[in-house]
Amino acid sequence: MRNAVIVGYKRSPFTMARKGEMAEVRPEDILSQTINSLMQETKINKDDIEDIITGCAYPEGAQGNNIAKIVSFMTNMPEHVAGMTVNRWCGSSMQAIHDATGAIAINSGDVFICCGVESMTFIPMNGLTYDPHPQLNKDNPNVYMSMGITAENVAKKFDISRKEQQEFAISSHKKANEARESKKLQDEIVSIQHGENNINIDGGIRPNTTQEILDGLKLVFDANGTVTAGTASPLTDGASAVLVCEEEYAKNNNLNILARIKSTAVVGCPPELMGLGPINATKKALKRANLTINDIDIVELNEAFASQSLACIRELEMDQNKINLHGGAIALGHPLGATGSRITGKVASLLRNNDKKYGLATQCIGLGQGIATVLENVN
C-alpha cells in the first residue's frame, strides 16, 4: 500500500484584509514566497514534483487564471510540473491534500505541493461578481444564507451564550499570543517581502481581549442574537503550503516525516447549520481510521465562529486541552483557501514536536459541508 506523508509545512503571516500589512501584496506573491520557503527548508528535488494543487475559495481576479500553475512559473518550477486549483470553499486546501493522498495511493505521483491562498483584500467575500441563482434562492434561501446567520442558528440550536462564545475567543487570543511570545510560531511563518517591507508577524492576535471589551461590540448579524465580530474569524490575507510525498519516497530521500495521512472524509450538512460540518466529517474519518475521539491527541478545529466551534466540541465530546494549542482562526485569521493546509500542517508539526500519536484537522464549510483529516505520527 502506498501511503502519503507530510514532510514540510509553511505559511505566511496572516494579516487583516484591507487594513493589514499584506493588503497591497498580490496573492500570487504571498503564495509563491510561501512555496519557495517550503522548497528551501525541505530541499526537495523540484524535478520529482508531480503537481501543485492549490486551494482557493474565490479563484477570480488576481486569484484566477489557475493560480496553481501561475505560481509554478513564479517559483521557477520545471516545465513538467503541473498545477491545479481546487475549490471546496473554506476546505479547499485541505481538499488539495486529500487529492494528493488519493493520487499517491494509485501511483499517480510521489511528490505534491498542497497549498492554499486567499487575499480577502483583492477578492472580497462573495467574490467580484456575486450572482446567486434566482430560482434556487427563491426555493431554498438557506443555500445562500450569510455565514454569520448560520453561526447565530448554531448558537440558538445549542443554547450557546454570548459569554461562552467570548470566553472561547479570549482563550484563542491568549493561546496564540503565548505561542507567538514563546516563538512557537516562528518556524512555520515565512517572511513575506513586499518592496522594502519584511512582513513576518500575524496581524490579528489581540492579547488584551477581555469580556468587557467584547461586551462593547455590536451584534453584527442579528439584533437579538449573540454573535459579534469578536467571536468570528476576521477577513484575512494569507497563504499556506505543505509538501505531501509517498512514504517510501520520503524515507529513501531522507525527508523529515511529520505525519502519515491515515484517513480523510468530507460530508454534507444543512447549509443553515454549516458550522456543524466537522461533526459528521470527523466521525466518518475516525471510523475509517478505526479510532475514536479519545485516541486523538491533538486537534486543529477551524474557528470560523466561536458558536460552531463550541457546538462541535460539545457534540464530539472533545477535550478542550487538546484543541488549537497555539490559538485558532478567531485570533490568527481565516484566509479561506489557506486555512485547510494550515491546520493540517499544524497538526502534523505538533504531533512530531510533541511526540504524540494521532491528530485531527477539521473544518466547517459554507453551503453546508465538513471536511476532516486524521494524521498519525510514524516516527
How would you describe this protein?
By secondary structure, the chain is of the alpha+beta class. The chain has a domain at 4-122 and 235-374: Thiolase/Chalcone synthase (Peroxisomal Thiolase, Chain A, domain 1, 3-Layer(aba) Sandwich), CATH 3.40.47.10. Helix content is 34%, strand content 21%. The longest helix has 20 residues, at 162-181. It starts with a strand and ends with a strand.
Sum this structure up briefly.
The chain is of the alpha+beta class and 379 residues long. The chain has helices at residues 27-42, 67-74, 92-105, 134-139, 147-157, 162-181, 211-215, 247-252, 277-289, 306-316, 329-332, 339-354; strands at 4-11, 15-16, 49-55, 82-86, 111-119, 192-194, 197-199, 236-246, 259-268, 298-301, 358-365, 369-376. Strand 3, helix 2 (67-74) and strand 4 form a beta-alpha-beta unit.
The radius of gyration over CA amounts to 19 Å
Number of helices: 12
Strand content: 15-25%
Order of helices and strands: EEHEHEHEHHHEEHEHEHEHHHEE
CATH homologous superfamily heading of the domain at 4-122 and 235-374: Thiolase/Chalcone synthase
CATH class of the domain at 4-122 and 235-374: Alpha Beta
Q: Would you tell me the structural class of the helices and strands?
A: alpha+beta
Please name the CATH architecture of the domain at 4-122 and 235-374. Answer: 3-Layer(aba) Sandwich
Arithmetic mean of pLDDT:
97
Helix content: 25-40%
CATH topology of the domain at 4-122 and 235-374: Peroxisomal Thiolase, Chain A, domain 1
Write down the oligomeric state.
Answer: single chain
Distance between termini?
A: 18 Å
Parts with pLDDT < 50 across at least 5 consecutive residues: none
Q: Number of DSSP strands?
A: 12
What form results from the Cα inertia axes? globular
